[in-house]
Specification:
By secondary structure, this protein is of the alpha/beta class. It folds into 2 domains: 156 residues, Rossmann fold, CATH 3.40.50; 236 residues, Dihydrodipicolinate Reductase, domain 2 (2-Layer Sandwich), CATH 3.30.360. It has 17 helices and 14 strands. It has an 8-stranded mixed sheet with strand order 13-12-11-7-10-9-8-14. Helix 5 packs parallel to helix 6 and helix 14 packs across helix 15. The radius of gyration is 22 Å and the shape is globular. The N and C termini lie far apart (55 Å). The structure holds nicotinamide-adenine-dinucleotide. Nicotinamide-adenine-dinucleotide (NAD) binds next to loops.
Length: 470
């Protein structure tokens, strides 16, 4: 089935999160004359990066990490729950950090943070439905934005972010921390060195049993419990397809130069039936409770296959309900070898004739050490010490601040954000239509043909001294 952007605008069901909040037609957000492509875009260097963090669940970790990065200060925080604000202020006091300005008290206090003069970067870690509206508002207020995953929920949100970044000439980056995992960076390094040969196929996933969090009641007094106001359960119950697609997918796209030499062409997507959410809720809360009676539309498992214009394939899976161990798969296979994770395995052939019949654990460890990505070699140990998903959160924030301080392009741009997040709406539409094939929009409008691939990006210690971070 051929599809274009307008087809997705039909009917309230496909209405974007942004539009639903603003109460207007999704088409109203279209900006007719953006200011040109943002590939390779670099903003003027910032002597100091002043960060405003909105949403202090996961965002609290962002406050802690950003405060440790030289040349970076958290100047503002915003949350609707007072206890979450207090927790961040307590941490600042205990760690000798200047207290950031506080924005709270109502659902739209974040607007004042975005409008303030002492913020350069809005770091948005709110529930999904707020991601795009806050990012659009912040860019229009002249701020760079970094948005938690998924940054956009609909194709219209994706286009609105692309066109607003193009118009305002500001960075709009998705905080895809998994691109900075040790094994992901190793795979990127192997791919860049040509040791996997020509890349053919990737497998990505988000398999994580989140039932306890989804049904957990958020205690506003304690600022703890499940997700705020059941935001994740509420979204999952109304949607099919893969609505949390980027953790496994982002790194595979970087290995394959998606939007920088190749791009997504089309996809097909199929959902399994849903059982685990509903069985869990009935067993835990009773069949007559509101939880037990709730129907969840999201399948236990969604499986999507993307075909790229250069003929590669990527399988992407999503399952947040089944009782099974965590996995992002992270499999990349080429004409000379394969790397995969959960558990970590790698096999490299000498040439395009030799076979790789087995994974040799000892040799795998040798390859891991020999081809460690320079960024991980440089700051990996420190990142592990500071923490955040084994260090990858810190490396992501470090690179983001480093690039802003030095006027460099970011590792992930607004086109990466849009193409990765386009899966939300496309997989839902395909899964609801017997896995029909759907075209993926070219958000770069042809720019993918000439854009430079992401290199092996590192940190120049003479420009950002991380030696004093403890
Ligand atoms: N990259 C990762 O590894 C990772 C991990 C966890 C969560 N996330 C993402 O981070 C985001 C937040 O997830 P979470 O686990 O912290 O959820 P959460 O529910 O724990 O936290 C959300 C926070 O946003 C606040 N909030 C809600 N409405 C608000 C408003 N109008 N104004 C200001 N604050 C508001 C809530 O009070 C809460 O503190 C989600 O997008 C999620 O997908 C990413």
């Amino acid at each position: 089935m051929k599809s274009n952007r307008r087809e997705f605008l039909k009917g309230a069901f496909w209405m974007g999160a942004t539009a639903a909040l603003a109460g207007c037609s999704t088409g109203a957000l279209r900006i007719s004359r953006p200011g040109g492509l943002m590939q390779g875009f670099a903003a003027a260097p910032l002597k100091k990066v002043r960060v405003g963090v909105i949403g202090l669940g996961r965002g609290f970790g962002g406050v802690q990490r950003m405060f440790q990065i030289p040349g970076t200060e958290v100047t503002a925080i915003c949350d609707i729950v007072p206890r979450r604000i207090d927790r961040a202020l307590e941490w600042c006091r205990k760690n000798g950090k200047k207290a950031p300005k506080v924005y709270t008290g109502n659902e739209e206090a974040w607007k004042k943070l975005c409008d303030s003069d002492d913020v350069d970067l809005v770091y948005n870690a709110t529930p999904w439905l707020l991601h795009t509206p806050i990012a659009l508002y912040a860019m229009n207020a002249g701020k760079h934005v970094a948005i938690e995953v998924p940054a956009a929920l609909t194709l219209d949100d994706c286009w609105a972010l692309v066109e607003t970044a193009e118009k305002t000439r500001l960075h709009c980056m998705q905080l895809e921390n998994c691109c900075y995992g040790e094994t992901e960076l190793l795979a990127l390094n192997l791919a860049r060195k040509g040791l996997l040969g020509d890349l053919i196929h990737g497998e990505a996933a988000y398999i994580h049993d989140l039932r306890e969090y989804c049904y957990g009641k958020f205690d506003k007094e304690k600022g703890a419990g499940g997700y705020y106001d059941y935001w994740r359960l509420n979204y999952n119950k109304d949607h099919a397809g893969n609505q949390y697609e980027t953790h496994g997918l982002g790194p595979i796209c970087q290995y394959m130069n998606i939007n920088r030499g190749d791009r997504f062409d089309y996809l097909v997507s199929v959902d399994s039936k849903q059982l685990s959410f509903e069985k869990y809720a009935k067993a835990k809360f009773g069949p007559d409770s509101w939880e037990g009676k709730m129907k969840v539309q999201m399948g236990n498992m969604n499986t999507t296959v993307i075909k790229t214009v250069l003929g590669r394939t990527i399988m992407v899976q999503h399952d947040v309900a089944s009782p099974r161990p965590y996995s992002r798969l992270n499999l990349i296979s080429g004409t000379k070898g394969i790397l995969c994770d959960y558990p970590f395995r790698v096999a490299l052939a000498k040439d395009e004739i030799e076979s790789c019949h087995v994974f040799d654990k000892e040799n795998g460890e040798k390859i891991r050490k020999e081809h460690m990505h320079p960024l991980w070699a440089q700051a990996g140990e420190l990142a592990k010490k500071i923490g955040g998903h084994g260090g990858m959160d810190f490396l992501m924030d470090l690179r983001l601040s480093y690039c802003l301080q030095n006027g460099l392009p970011l590792d992930m741009d607004v086109y990466d954000l849009a193409s990765w997040c386009s899966l939300g709406e496309l997989t839902e539409k395909s899964a609801r239509n017997r896995g029909c094939s759907l075209d993926v929009p070219d958000f770069t409008k042809g720019g993918w043909k000439t854009a430079k691939p992401l290199g092996i990006e590192t940190i120049d210690m003479s420009k950002l001294d991380i030696s004093n971070i403890s």
